[in-house]
Every structure is written in C-alpha cells, then in structure tokens.
Amino acid sequence: MFRHTASLIIAASLLLSACGVAEEKTSENSTSAGESTTIQEEQSNSNPAETGEYGTSAPELSANDTTVTEEETESSGKVSTEEKVEKTYHMNENYYIKPNDDTSQSKVVLLTFDDGPKEEKMITSLIDTLDKHNAKAIFFVNGYRVKSHPELLKLIHERGQIVGNHAWDHEDLKKMSNAEAAKQVTDVQKIVKDTIGEEPQFFRPPFGSGNDALKAAVKKNGMLYMTWSNGSLDWDKSTKDKPEKVIQNVMDQLNPGSNILMHELPWTVEALDELLTKLEKKGYAFVDPRAIELEAR
After folding, report:
1. What gap in Å lies between CA 129 and CA 150, rounded to an integer?
2. Annotated catalytic residue: which of 90, 157, 166, 263?
3. Average per-residue pLDDT in the chain?
4. What is the rounded end-to-end Cα distance, in angstroms, of the chain?
5. Lowest model confidence (mean pLDDT) among 51-55, 99-103, 173-177, 242-246
C-alpha cells in the first residue's frame, strides 16, 4: 500500500514538472514572436533615405528591376531642350524671314552669331541678354572651335539657344573641291551630334561664299542654307570697340524679316541689350529659328 501511494506521488510530481516546462517554453515562444513582429514593423516604417540603411526584410530588386528604376529616375529628372515649335515662317531667296500667312507677325528679325564658340564669358553674356528679351538666336559654330571647347557648345545648347553649322574651318568653301567642301559640312554635323545629341538644322558658309554643289551637300544633310540680309559689320575694323556702330549698322539696314549677322565679339556683347531694346521699340519681334521651315521659298 505504501509503495503504491509513493508511486502515485512520484508520477504526479513528474506530470506537474512537465507542465511547468511546457508553459515556460510557450511563454518564451510568445515573447520571441512579439519581438520579431516589432522588428519587422520598425523596418517597414523606417525610411531608407532617412536612415541610410535598408532592412533585410525589404524586397530585393532583380537586375532588370534595377535597370528600369535607373532609367525612370533619369527620365524624370531630364529636361528636354527639343521643344516642338510650329513652322510658321520661311526664308525667301534673299535670305529674309517671312511669315507663312497673315496669322504670324511680319515685323520680325532673325538673330545670328557666327564664328564661335570662343569664350564662356561672352557666350554667357550674350545668352543672358537674349533671355532678358525672350529671344532665340542661331549660334553658327566652326568645327575646330567645338573640338577645342565642347563645353561651350554644351553651354549654348543647355541654355536653350540654337546651334548652326558654319563649316569645320573658317575658309572659303567655294575654293575647295566639292568633296572637301562637303566634308567641311558633314564633319561639323558629326561633332555637334556627338557633343549635344542633335545635328544642326541651319548652315551658313564662311564669308557667305558657296556654290550649287555646296548647297546640295547642305540640303542632303537636312539643313537650310543661308547667308544674311543685314550685316552688323561688327567684324570690320571700323566697328571694333564701337558698340554704337554695331547698333547703327543694324538699324540702318532694318527691314521686316531681316536676317542679322553678328559675331561673338566684346563690342557686340556690349551692344546687344540696347540693340534689342531699340528693335522692340520699333515694333519688331525675334523669330524663333525653330519656327522657320528648312526649305527656302
């Protein structure tokens, strides 16, 4: 009887002990699950951009996902300089800019600057003045200058101005063979495209000197061939260091549609603001080169 009672007591003790262990393990498991949930919530609520760290619970991007994300980011932050402008003007055989119909203003001038890009200070000043007057201009560039200072070409483009082709060297293309002259054209197209991602749509030969073969090469490259109809003579020694002469020369030749030839020169930079102000007071507007058809008529 004693042995039977002792056995029952021992069995009961073992059962109670086992229950205590099970309860302790259950409590430990419950605590671990709670901590895990809290950690996951903290990782979920934390902003990686603020903490500088990414939680291990965040989903990993595949290689393809990473590429798409980078492309989307680049695309969203990129400002396009290729604004679509309706073609409302054309150039006639005398290089004047004319409206296509009565809905467009006839009292306009085309602003152009040749022989660059030369110096950042002058280019910046010219463009600052153009911006002040809400004006666009064509900067006709030489290839050899672009090769020396591609950053200046980028500056012109990024500031929203228009790049034109002025041949690789500033030499008389009419004195070259047709093949040599054509290469002067195509080499500039290539270096400009490589530098800013766009080819010029306007061509002006150095000295205004060309022939039918050159015009054909220009047309083949999708450009409008032009010289000018209003020369500022800013390049001439009679005008050197005389901004007032630059202004007077332009105003003396002024007509609706004037295609004004200027250069990247210190006295032209100094004259530009007053010149544009005078033109505005006479009721003239500044035609956007992108509004000009690429076929003369």
Report:
1. 22
2. 263
3. 81
4. 129
5. 51-55
Give yes or no for a contact between 243 and 263, defined as CB atoms under 8 angstroms apart. no
Contact 293, 166 (CB under 8 A): no
Nearest to 153 by CA among 185, 212, 184, 198: 198
263 as an active site residue: the answer is yes
Query: What is the per-residue pLDDT for 64?
Result: 36
Are 161 and 128 in contact, with CB atoms under 8 Å apart? no
Tokens 């680049």 map to which residue?
74
Nearest by Cα to 221 from 196, 187, 175: 187
Within 10 A of 146 (CB to CB), how many other CB atoms are there?
A: 25
List, for residues 57-99, the tens digit of each pLDDT value.
Answer: 333 333 333 333 333 333 333 334 457 899 999 999 999 999 9
170 is catalytic: no
Cα gap 8→154, rounded to integer Å: 97
Question: What whole-number distance in Å separates Cα of residue 5 and Cα of residue 32?
Answer: 41
Dist. CA 46–CA 61, nearest whole Å = 18
Q: Could you say which of 90, 114, 157, 234 is catalytic?
A: 114
